[in-house]
Design goal:
By secondary structure, the protein is mainly α. It has 14 helices and no strands.
Amino acid sequence: MDVPIPTIPPETDDSDAGAVMNDVKAVALADTQTQVFPGVHVNARGVALTILATVAFFFALSAAQRFFIPLVFGILVAYTLSPLVDTLQGWRLPRVIATTVVMISMLTIIGTQINSLHTEFDAILDQLPIATRKFSSEMSKLQIGQSGLMQKMQTAATEIEKATSQATTGVQPNVKKAVVTETPVLKLRELLLAGSLGIMDLLGQAIMTLFLIFFLLLSGDKFKRKLVKITGPSLTQKRITVQILSKINTSVQQYMFMLLITNGLLALLSWIAFHFMGLENAGAWALTSGLLHIIPYFGSLLMALAVCLIAYVQFGTISMALLVAGISIAIAALVGTVVTTWMTGRITRMNAAAVFISLLFWGWLWGAWGLLLGVPIIVIVKVISEHIDGMQTVAELLSE
């Protein structure tokens, strides 16, 4: 594009003429950039603020995890139990009585299951010292073998270094002796104190979570109505908010129902397999397997390691221990790949790779609780992204 060059008046001196020519060049450069990159506008300040806000948000989630973890867990459990309370309320029971009945029933079922397996869990606790001694013995043998091998390798490396140094410089190198530092022994009193504080902290958070679940169930749809009310005056915004809340409610309830079905099936199959293999306390280990399977991928690996150790203590052979661990992993893989994958695909329609990456992220952020709560959080994020303008990219990345 030809840029018209203005004429310079006769009375203009050289400095003014130079300024005019610089302005003309700037206009021409701007016009050329507009032609080369039409419609491209990069708001560097907006991008930087978005990145800083995102980093600050996740830092706040990590720093305040003692608040956010019980909150998210309580909301998910309340979503799961809400249909039961609504059903009892439909039978003309007051909301507070229906909520109390559901909470007492839930705690009674959990307590009954634990009490029914109390003997088996006591037997497992009695076996822990034996398992610890055998495991320590095997580890000490392994360390002795490794230390002998490492000493031979170090001696060979020293001889090679000595021969190389003599061949090149003729000077024998000084061989430094390895200094062995003693690691401080952890005091038993400090260990017991730390364990007691951890148990008290976990118990306090559990009680607060139960109260949170109770009040969320008692409130019913009050918070939903308030969210719809504050979204805006237009009916379109209110309708979108109602759709998001309804979809989140349905997705979370279906996901929790799927966890109940798959984990119950896993516990049943594990009990059958452990019972026929002759593993002691098969019921307790099957229940533990079902509970750990709530944590995707990593829970099954932890269960396999646990039953491998227990099987080695009971049977005394590595082959039997590996067989029990292999069967545990095979059952978890069968249930996970066939039942869980099929039901999750029908419920969430999510990308498996994106789900696994999100699990790694939430596990890094919140540890084991992040692995437990990661999938429901991603389900909620996907539902919100599908209904809000500007977030369709996130929904596309998470979808199949």
